[in-house]
Amino acid sequence: MPPEQRQPWPALVAFARTASAGKPSAKWLKDAEKHLSAVGAAPFREVLTAALPLLPRPRTFRLNPMQYGGDPNLLLDEFNALSLKGLLWMVPLASDDALTRAVAGVVESALKKVPGVGPRAPKIANAAVYALSRTESGAALSALARLATTVTFKGTLKEVHKGLEVVAARLAVTPDELLELGVPTLGLTAVGERVDVLGDVEARLSVGADGTHLGFTRGGKALKSVPASVKTDHAEELADLKAAQKEAEKSVAALAQRLDGLMVQPRVWPGEAWTERYLHHPLAGTVARRLIWLVDGVAALWADGDLRDVQGAPVAVAPAAEIQLWHPIGRGVPEVLAWRDRLDVLGITQPFKQAWREVYVLTDAERRTGTYSNRFAGHILRQHQFHALAALRGWRNRLRLMVDDSYPPAMRDLPAYGLRAEYWIQGIGQDYGTDSTESGSYLRLNTDQVRFYPLDAPENHAHAGGGSYEMWVNQTQQPVNPLPLEQIPPLALSEVLRDVDLFVGVASVGNDPTWQDGGPGGRFREYWHSYSFGDLTETAKTRAAYLKRLIPRLKIAARLSLDGRFLRVQGDRRAYRIHLGSANILMEPNDQYLCIIPGGKGSGPDVNFDGDRVLSLVLSKAFLLADDTAITDPVILQQLGR
User: How far is Cα 202 from Cα 218, in angstroms, rounded to an integer?
Assistant: First the structure.
């Protein structure tokens, strides 16, 4: 940068350090325009677009960590953070799509967790969200829509929703419509396809069930890598294609997650808007066309260039038609099985569990208890894993510290039904350091009841380390009784219990193959054994049903069979039974336990059943044990030889 261009920069950066308020005032923005004018919009964009992606990188010179507090090498210096905050506030005054993408990346980087601290720099994340909400472009709207799904930190998520409200008011649409309008096209001209001609090379960006792919052809012949002519003569177009590929991956994942969340809501779209925003949208269509929809009550799926019912007959969509997401609850078993068969025949991988979605209906035990469910009580969960899952599924939860304090249960608001769901949990243990992290957070939780209350009911609280929950009320409130489970809409009940099943299925210590001895002091031995080889939950039952269809297609099918709660594997050394809930293993004939610790990526077959990690573990272990004479791991061999 020439000296004459560098001159105004110190003044601009010094001014940026005055960004001490929660958001910029009108006067601050007016002064910012003067400094930005002196520097120039183009140089400002160029510098920030190059600099912001460097935020996740470590320090150039490492600092020695203090005994207490977070590692300073993972944190932002407060002096520099204030400057960055001010620079982000200026972005809407001079932004383009490349800078907007860089700002969206700042949110993710600033919210990265630092041990002992939490999110790295929430104020920087909030400043980036402010910049996106004030930037009038499709790229900014797309970034906000994606962040509304992916951000789990409460403070920043609140700012994202505020930002969406600002944009929605500016465009005179509802926040829900805004999220749909925020799905980018990224230059795709057909659903999942973009073709750019770069000299004598054709570049094709494809988006589908197997991810995004960027390929190049010359004269109809596929090329193994990016041609040199494209790198030199079309560097800018190539960079745009790569940025579009990266953005497509993030946007598709966020859209699938948002639609998965809408499975619990009675959302209805008019046919004309739904066709434009979903079915024929260049990017959203890659997700929508793999889902089953109700068109005026008729279930339909995209196949062979049209929407078709389960028998393959075309289904027309009138402009005023009522469109909803199909859910298996309330549908007959023959219909659900027919759709599973249909997806199988068409070879369609759905973006999330829909036809194979677990359904939870009231049990006799829940009818007897009346106002609460004990279906998922008495489990031991890893607190931090549970906390992350809860945030991902839209639950409100606070990490419990080993202190004399009270906490509300994990809660999920269901505004469409005027309900609040609660999952009662408490910390376990009293030994600081063994039962807690260094910062004092409980390592493990014990689970209790699931209850439902009116959305505006006062909150329950219980001591961090256990005790009964009590409803806290003020002078203007009265205690509210939990609602009878029979009064809860079946769809809301099923989706809440499905979430809780996920929490237990993923975060339970019973999934850890190394916990056969029961963990610290052997305290959880009885629970570990009962969970590791006990009755199957609905998720595990669905896993068994899927395996029944999958096994005949596997090359080791002759060695596999389903045996109640287990997948039985016939090896050459021994026969094995893999539990379908925990993926833990027993060896025949005396049910001797076999400990196999999961390896890294690539340690088993490439199976992705709607993100079901346990199914991947079950199949990975099955492939390993079916060829047990090829095992070389000395720890496993020692166990097999006993």
Answer: 6
